[in-house]
Structures are given as C-alpha cells and as structure tokens.
Amino acid sequence: MNTEKSKSTLVVVDYCRNCSKNLNPNAAFCDQCGGKIIKNRITTKNLLEDFNDRFLSIDGAFPKTFIALYRNPEDVIGGYINGVRKKYMSAFGYFALSLSIAGIYVFILREYFMDSIFENISSETIQNQDKAQLDFVKQLTTGINEYQALLSILSIPILAFISRIVFWNYKQFNYLEHVVIYLYAFSHINLTVYILAILTIWSPSIYIFFSFVGTIGYVIYLCYVLKRLYGLNFKKLILKTSLFALIGSLFFFIISIIVGIIMFKMGMFDELIENIKTANQAKT
Q1: How far is the C-alpha of 207 from the C-alpha of 200, rounded, in Å?
Q2: Which of 75, 148, 150, 158 is the most exposed place for a label (fewest CB within 10 A)?
Q3: Confidence class of residue 133 from pLDDT cuts 50, 70 and 90?
C-alpha cells in the first residue's frame, strides 16, 4: 500500500502524485510522466522556486532567451519551430512573462503617475476645446491600458495573418509558425519597452521620449527579426516592410472604424462632444 509520512519538513513519497506510478526510492523525477517529485513541504523558498521554474526561469533560460532574441533571434524562434524546447524559454512562457511585466507597468502607471504625466502635457494656456480633447485622450489611454493584455492576445494572430500574406511566396513558415514568430518578437519588444517605461516613469519628459522611441522600436525590431529568419537582403526587406505597412494600415483603419462605432454606441464620445460644443459657444 502507498504511504506518506511527514517528518519535520520532509515528505516521504513512494508514488508519483501526477500519474500514480510507483517510484524508485531516490527518484527526483517520474520516469513515466516526467513530473518533478516534491519531497519538501511547502515553504516560501520552494514556492518562489516553483514560480521561477514555471514563469521566469531566472536560473538561465530567461536571460539566455532575452539576450539571444537580440543577437540571434533566428536561433530562438527557428529553434522552437524546429523542436528545440529546453535551450530557451517557450514562446507561450515568454509571452506570459511579458504580460506579467505589462500588468506591473499598467498598475504603477494608473495608480501613481497617470495624472502627473498628463499634467505635464497640458499647460495653463491650453484652450477649453484642447482640454476636452486631452481629457478624452487620457480616458482612451486608461482604457487601452486596462485591456492591454487582451489587446496583446488579439494582436498576435492578426500580425501573424498579415505576415503570412506578406510572405505568401515563401513556404518556410506556415500560419501557426508565424504565430510563434510574433509570440516571441512581440513579447520581446514589449518586455524591453515596459521595463524601460517602469524605469523612466518617474520623469514625464523622459517617459514620453522612451514611449516615442518604443513605437519606432517595434517596427525596427520586427524588421530585424524577419530579415534574420528569412535571410532578406536590403531591397527585399524594404519591399516586404512597405507591403506589411500597407496591409497593416488597412487592417488598422478597418479595426479603428469598428472600435470607434462601438465606442460611439457606448456613449464614450458624449462628454467630448459636449465639451467641444461648450467651447465653441463660448467663443461666439
């Protein structure tokens, strides 16, 4: 019969709690399902170790992945597509980590710095109509930040679809493999931008500068990744980037119209419209 004894912090385990297979006395992992055998009772240390193993991989995989995605993105992304699973963090693990850092950033921005940043943008000479528009931008920014995780999740399949269209004459990667490309690339630039944002958010002027640079960084890094993965020369890179921008702009225009209609139906423009009317009446 399987038994389990507790002795201080040590738990005697003679079968796998994941698949119920009998274990060798000194087994560290189950040879049936590969699950790690937990022999210590729960402590702060092993909770942090479990969090690290599942999400951060600070023991080597995360820093190795982060650096390699700048130096040799084709090694990380192409390796994962070709079956490499242990050398670097997985695509979904890296994406989950980027969402976690984004959540921390959004919390810090919303709770401590949102007002000061918009106060820095505004001035005493701002007109009422401009003030109404600025308030609307603030509300829109807050809304985007609130749904940042959802927007990121939705962006990946859209970017992958556009990329598959742009590279229709290349058979190297299918649609799902393009999803993997953008899970890594989108997550990587997000991690970089959000870490820089958290470090500079104390200064509105520096924060705004890095936000602007970050927007350009998205485009440059995606071009860099695609160039390395497909081995594009400069002429082909410009052609594919221009086509991507054209198709992406069309998608953005259509999505913006749909979102705008939804926002209008929800009454999100009512306050802005009323403030503009009030400002125009005051002028006359």
Answers
A1: 5
A2: 150
A3: low
Please give the mean pLDDT across all residues of the chain. 78
Q: Which residues pair with 29 in a beta bridge?
A: 36
pLDDT tens track for 36-55: 676 666 677 766 666 666 55
Q: Based on the number of CB atoms within 10 Å of its own CB, is 245 exposed (0-12), middle (13-18) or buried (19 or more)?
A: middle
Residue 31: both structure tokens together: 């040879």
Q: What is the amino acid identity at position 224?
A: Y
Place of tokens 């500079």: 200
CB 222 within 8 A of CB 185: yes
How confident is the model at residue 268, as a pLDDT? Answer: 60
Cβ pair 260, 268 in contact under 8 A = no
In one-letter notation, the amino acid at residue 167 is F
Taken in order 113, 114, 117, 119, the sign of the CA dihedral is: negative
Q: Comparing C-alpha atoms, which of 145, 97, 103, 120 is closest to residue 202?
A: 120
